[in-house]
Amino acid sequence: MTSSSPPNAPTVFDEIFARLTPNSIFQDARATGDGIAVAVIDSGVERAVLEAKFLAAGTPIQHIEGAIFRPTGPPLEYTGHQSSPHGTTVADIVLTLAPRVRLYSADVFGPTGSCEVETVIAALRHCIDVWNVKVVNLSLGVPEHKLQQLPRRQQLQRAIEEAYFRDVLVFAAAHNEHPLTRSYPAAFAPPLISVDKGLFDDPLRFAYKLTEQVEFQAHSRGYLGPFAREPATSWATPHLAGIAARILSLKPDLKPFEIKTILYWLFRSGGNGKPAQ
Amino acid sequence: MTDTVLIVDDEESVRRTFQEWLTAALPGANVFAVPDAESALKVANEYAVDLAVLDWNLGSGSDGLRLLEDLVEFRPDVVAILVTGFAHQATPLDALRMGVRDYIDKNQDLNRDTFVAAVRRQLDRIYPAKQQRELNRRLAAFREAVEKVLPIVQTSAAFNDPVPLPAAVKSLLRFVIRGTLAADGALIVRHTEADGTESTVAYGSDGVALPTPLVPFGKSLAASVISFQEPIALNDFDPKALGPMELLPFEANRSCILAAPLRVAADTVVVVELFDKASPGFTEEDRRLIASAAEVGTDLLRQAIAERQTHQLLFDAVDAALQATAHLTDMPTATDTAPPLSVMARLKEGLGADSNATAPPETTLRLVEAVRSLAVRHGPSAVEHCVTVVNDLRKLLDEMTGTA
Fold first, then answer.
1. Same structural domain for residues B190 and B308?
2. Which residue among A92, A246, B102, B200 is the one 20 to 30 A from A257 at the CA level?
3. Domain span including residue A94
4. Is there a single domain that holds both residue B188 and residue B301?
5. Hey, are the CB atoms on A85 and B233 less than 8 Å from each other?
6. Which of B134, B155, B174 is the last residue of a domain?
7. What's the domain count of chain B?
8. How many Å apart are CA A94 and CA A240, to the nearest integer?
């Protein structure tokens, strides 16, 4: 015989998710990103600028480490400087939301100012194997028409899947013209968390909005530098990565699919994430 | 290097014998044998004579030394062996100065072995200088060829450059400025050499290069645009909130900026920047227009920059070749090199320490250097002659002064 519970009776999941509200998580004093290693795969980070900014704000950050990557060969030493301001703005967003994370800068643009898929893969593997990070932010992507070669696309996908199976959360920015232009690795949605841009009245708000393989929307304005004010998926992605770091600082052993589920539920249960525009 | 030997003797039997001896002994050499000065000069006019074997008495009032004077006109480095039955008549100093390196006395020691040995000795002696001369000659020929090629390369570059870079920049900027109604624009080209050397050049809307940017590229607005990988508009541009960014001079005091990256090559990236469109600033349509223009402009600039780099590589190579051979005529031969100053200083110190010395060390050193130079230029026999002259002078002075 089967149990005869009423058809609309709450399940155990309903009870769990009833306790899981944006307020219960984000108002928790422990939700600072503490104990969580986050890698920003981007154009490097100007360390002194961020250290000075957060020190002045009364929330000193942990020492930022990093490396400069190339398509082949070992990574070069990170000297605390950026290859371009983009990476610093991205890192600033992560630290604004989760100031106690241990941040690693993976500079994949380096002195040449260009970024190849092979460089991103090398950086991603380093983040997983050497730095043992829990969260990776990729505010960059390769448009589909520039990644026609299947072997290269498959290499990138394999690296993303490897991160998933190693319990590393990868946040990847959708193209700013998504869905008109698809961009990788954001289009590899299942093993990672793809992020589109949206404008919210609170940077901790976000939305689950499935659009052509891109699942989430997050706040798309940054805080540092003139470009930060322009809405972009580059700024939306570190917002969601920072939110994930805060959740992980409460329970660091969460797996990527668990985080994705929690993010989904936070959106549904809290009324969180209705885009302001 | 083939040796060329010229035998001049008015006696046919002697001439023929000398030629047979040398042809057999020096199979790789050019051996010419002529009876008189006129024929000798004809050969010298046509061939680079290394060694002349000259009869002292050529008949018709001509002599080997006078012929040697003429041969030197054709080949300043020519050396000679004087064959004579009248050795006592020779004026050794003049002969040495003119290039006579050896004497063979017809009446005493002339046979096949002594003759071939004398010729071989002189050819061996001149070999290093000849080798150096040959190298210089080839380098000079190379330089001459490069100098001839250079104007052709430059002309070819001018003809083959279908879109000169300034023209390409000007066309691209004019198009996007007109299309977006921007007030001004600029284009920034960043190139990374194979050795990692970086260079950044900015061009104004007229295609003319702007002063070299002093801001580190990694902190520039252009670098940020490259990282964005797509066009971006800044309509509420606040120059006070730059954060980790620094502005280039032509970006300062702008009300709004629209910028797009152009991936021209793996080592060359370009950013187009448009400025100061009237309120409300750049629109989404402007962003799409500059994105499309960037696609077209990438090909245009790729061609212009690639042409320029190819030509520059060629020009650099030609320039390097010209510089490498610039001082060819001043190139010293190894045999002319003076002793190092340290050696001369030690000699001077040693001479100064000799308590019996009557001449100052400088004077003695001058004599040593004169003898050394003599030996370098004219061989050991010249030194022997010098010693003889000094001894003769000493005897003469001893006799005149009654010194024992």
1. yes
2. A92
3. 31-270
4. yes
5. no
6. B134
7. 3
8. 8
A230 touches chain B (CB under 8 A): yes
Domain that holds residue B300: 165-324
Query: In B257-364, where do the E strands start and end?
Result: 257-265, 268-275
First-to-last C-alpha distance (Å) of chain A: 52
Q: Are residues B128 and B213 in the same domain?
A: no
| A226 contacts B239? CB cut-off 8 A | yes
Nearest residue of A to residue B255, measured between CA atoms: A226
Start-to-end Cα distance in chain B: 55
Q: Give a yes or no: residue B143 inside a domain.
A: no
Query: Quick check: pTM over 0.90?
Result: no
CA–CA gap between residue B305 and residue B167 (Å, rounded): 11
B159 within a domain of the structure (yes/no): no
Mutate which of A107, A140, A144, A227 to test chain B, going by most B C-beta atoms within 10 A? A227
Residues of B with Cβ-Cβ distance to A175 under 8 angstroms: 230
- Pick from A81, A89, A111: CB nearest B196: A111
In this predicted model, what pLDDT tens digit does every residue of B117-142 receive, in sequence order? 989 988 888 888 777 777 777 777 77
Residue B227: the pLDDT is 81
When scoring B197, B200, B245, B302 by the number of chain A Cβ atoms within 10 A, the one with the most, hence best to mutate, is B245
CB contact under 8 Å between B218 and A82, yes or no, is yes
Chain position carrying tokens 């996908």: A157
Task: Answer with the one of B134, B151, B175 that is the final residue of a domain.
Answer: B134
Rg (CA), chain A: 18
Does the beta carbon of A52 lie under 8 angstroms from any beta carbon of chain B? no
Compute, in degrees rounded to 10, the torsion defined by CA atoms B21, B22, B24, B26: 160
